Amino acid sequence: MCWNWSRCLWRIRIFKLKKEKQDYIVVMEATQEKELLRGGQFLVKETKCEDVFTPEDFSEEQTMMKEAVMEFNEREIIAHKTRFEAKDYALTEEVMRKAGELGFLGVAVPEAYGGLGMGFVSTCLTCDYISSGTGSFSTAFGAHTGIGTMPITLYGTEAQKQKYVPKLASGEWFGAYCLTEPGAGSDANSGKTTAELSADGKSYKINGQKMWISNAGFCSVMIVFARIENDKNITGFIVEYDEDNPNGITLGEEEHKLGIRASSTRQVFFNDTEVPVENMLAGRGEGFKIAMNALNVGRIKLAAACLDSQRRIITTGVQYATERKQFKTPIADFGAIKMKLAKMATDAYAGESATYRAAKNIEDRIALREAAGNTHQEAELKGVEEYAIECSILKVAVSEDVQNCADEGIQIFGGMGFSEETPMEAAWRDARIARIYEGTNEINRMLSVGMLVKKAMKGHVDLLGPATAVQNELMGIPSFETPDYSELFSEEKAMITKLKKVFLMVAGAAVQKFGPEMEKHQQLLIAASDILIEIYMAESAILRTEKNAKRTSEKEQSVQIAMSKLYLYNAVNIIEDKGKESIISFAEGDEQRMMLMGLKRFTKYTNYPDIVDLRNEIADKVKAENKYCF
Fold first, then answer.
1. Under DSSP, is residue 43 helix (H, G, I), strand (E, B) or coil?
2. What pLDDT score was predicted for residue 21?
3. Which of 195, 374, 502, 603: disulfide with 369, CB 3.0–4.6 Å?
4. Residue burial 76-87, b: 16+ Cβ < 10 Å; e: rest
């Protein structure tokens, strides 16, 4: 390990040890002073800008970690991009080992098991800045630190954690997650792989096939899901793999994929693979629960992993657009290109805002549970599970934004963008998988609304009261007074409130009509989820900018203000479209007319923003800085 890296990680560890007790007290005081909303409550309760965490709130420790990760990314990953694109699987493994030596694989692992024991925000930060060099390394890193390590950290016995987690945290061993099968993708609990208890009761024999297994080519530990007898739910097992002693495990050839080319992806076959009974993870039939909770964490980390990719695409795009001249003019000066740059920067800014907002909510919820006496395992499981709705929202929104960003990056480059000689082509290919893994975006859209309805039924989120109030409002006479919108974001925050009424109106009426059968109406659920997603993303951008404008000035935040307004304007158009689609799909006659009138009322600005001016201001700033600069 080079001296610079040793010093950097040493400083981070010493700083953390000195600040650990103080930071915990600060966290507890902060969470007591502010109202920490439960997952999904953003829809029915107002969030103050002071209560959200933003990237501008990174601590000294987090800033040091960010700088260390960025340097690692530049030197060990970006500098070797061509080798990754040439399917150099050995390089991926080599760089993963280096990441382990520097502590990056153990950021979220408790110190008792050889990790840095840093908080959830730091976990997302590390994932953010280490993932943009290539999707190949990003996938290997995410699979190992998330679904490869976390199930043992959160569900393992003390003996299991002591045996496996330190080796996983250090990079001595790598983890893989064996869930998907040829006939079991989104329906994860339908897997056919079996686990049969031996006659002496000391071991299980696993038989079956798994596919699309990341890190399979160089892993030492697999989290394998199998069904015991005719159990309703699958069970998780920790399975060791040694190619010199394969224990009935056979690997398929490396899959040749559209993107993430140097990420090891293989089929895994189990033929009487013997696993000691003490390697069962959690209890019998607990595997589905492990899989779902692991995916919740994976979803927000996937969102984080897409952020710096957007920053780099924007930076590369504007630099090319500034240099490339047509008709004796840099194409960055053309309105058509400005429109693209503004949208790319705005979406990236909103993604950052929402991801770190949710990450801090999770971190604070974990701290509160630990203070209440929960173990770290219990606290982290429940803390992440609490915000499963937000995790699904982020997974969908940011994975689609990075794909759109890369697509527009290709368009800015024109014909050169389609060439492997320029970086946009690889960025587009790598981005495509993000909409599929950690649960497809279609599944996550339906999950977000379904989980919200379940929370309402449990009394965790009061949807009935606000939905009834919206129905009553629709029956009343609207106010014709002109409101005072003189303060920063006063109209935008009023619009956010109205957009929440759109969701409550649509979802409330749909639940009333279909009840438990609503889950069968997938197109309606997807439309409703798009409304929910846009509300959360738009509100997050506005709250971040409002908080920073209060502690600096509106002048200093003028471009961020423009991005927040532009994102909201685009969100209103999406919500109006999805709201109309939803209403006419299930309402008829007077009910339909009433709801369409309500939709028009709830999506109408008093003062429409000048969208062209906003775009130009954002694009001009990006051009002036020659990079994504927010």
1. helix
2. 43
3. 374
4. bbbebeebbbeb
